[in-house]
Amino acid sequence: MHITRASLMAWQFLLPLINEQKKNGHYVCICGAEDKYVSILRSRGIDVFIHKLKRSLNLYSILKAIFMIRQHIKNNRINVVICHTPLGSGVGRIAAKISGAHHIIYFAHGLPCSPAQNKFIWLFWFSIEKMLGKITDAIILMNDYDEKICKQYHFIKDIKNIFRISGMGVDLKKFNNQIENNHYRSIKEELGIKGEKKTVICIAYIVKEKGVFEYLEAARQICEKRHDVCFLLAGFGPSIKKLKMLSRRFKLEENLKILGWRDDINFLLKFSDIFVLPSYYFEGLPVSILEAMACCKPVITTKHRGCEDAVVDGVTGYLVPIRNPKKLAEKIIILLNDDQKRIYMGRAGRKIAERNYDIEKCSKLIIDKIETAINRREC
Question: Per DSSP, what are the bridge partners of residue 277?
Fold first, then answer.
């Protein structure tokens, strides 16, 4: 059973892994929140059980979810529980423990104790993870920072069961640099982009920590001086209304398109010239960066956990300090002005994506780590 707070997460990131596990003869199910993706997952032949866990630290909600998940585990005789996302993994591990599940694995898509947090928030989440580590058999990680923290502070009893992977991977057939002229024209017309403007895109969950306000400010600084560039922001989240309000205040509507949720991210990436993610979120290894690299796009992101693990500074893109729209704007301008550099960095990123991030290889590696953890426990 895969446990995650939102079923959306399973739809976005876990399907290739689940499909590989099913190929290996395992019964695989999901426990998540009731949202529109539950029916989509069930239509794919995957059982989805509901826990009703909200995105909050409300104690009643947490306790209720723990006992609901516990019952799902017992009713379906689940042997292996794999927990994802900070809240889902905490609640899931406790539920798995009291249910008597044989194997409890924490798949950390970014530990909640992030280097960009203030020390008190960091210490709170660090302490939570240390306590939960006592009931965790194995941890799967995606970046240097998380691996170092887990091993240095012995998050679980046996550090041999702390596994590092290269990431969730990317579908290299879907994400590439091939775009047909009719797709290019239709996107341009839909977005109302006039003339031969360069296009910069950010794809993110719309919260402050994803750097979306730094992205808007960098766009404002650049658009004050030039009118040959259009900025796109694709995604949804609680900060989207404030972003739209600021865009209107700065008169950026013509040059900053806030798109909301999109199902055609691969086409938007192919259409764009530069990908930007100024994140200081609790990243594991951002899939959006891998998708941009697979589409031969140079990436400008932050010197932050997960982001800096994916991008080679000066080769596949640029790394800038967090919360620094001025530096972000400077790097965007460098790439806007240099066609050859954009092409070179994009091709270098594609080569790395092909070598390290093919989704089938990554899924098989993850399964190998899960099987290794299970076998070690049973020995």
Answer: 301
**pLDDT confidence of residue 179:** 85
pTM exceeding the 0.85 threshold for the entire prediction: yes
> Mind giving me the DSSP string for 46-88?
-EEEE----SS--HHHHHHHHHHHHHHHHHTT--EEEEESHHH
**In whole angstroms, how far apart are CA 299 and each of 254, 293, 296, 345?**
23, 7, 9, 8
pLDDT for the residue numbered 180:
81
> Shortest CA distance to 336 belongs to which of 202, 201, 203, 199?
199
Q: Identify the burial level of 36 via C-beta atoms within 10 angstroms of its C-beta, where 0-12 means exposed, 13-18 middle and 19 or more buried.
A: exposed
Instruction: State the pairing for strand pair 29-32/2-3.
Output: parallel
Please give the pLDDT value at position 378: 62
Q: What is residue 379's predicted lDDT score, i.e. its pLDDT?
A: 56
Q: Is 257 helix (H, G, I), strand (E, B) or coil?
A: strand
| Contact of 250 with 220, CB cutoff 8 Å | yes
Choices 3.40.50.2000, 3.30.2350.10, 3.40.630.10, 3.10.50.40: CATH for 2-169+359-378? 3.40.50.2000
3-state SS of the chain: helix, strand, coil percent to 5?
50, 15, 35
Domain ranges of the chain: 2-169+359-378, 181-356
Nearest to residue 242, comparing CAs of 211, 208, 219? 208
Residue 372: how many other CB atoms lie within 10 Å:
14
Query: What value, to the nearest 5°, has the Cα angle with vertex 141 and ends 293 and 211?
Result: 50
In the CATH hierarchy, which fold is given to the domain comprising 181-356?
Answer: Rossmann fold (3.40.50)
| pLDDT < 70 regions, the chain | 377-379
The whole-number pLDDT of residue 54 equals 84
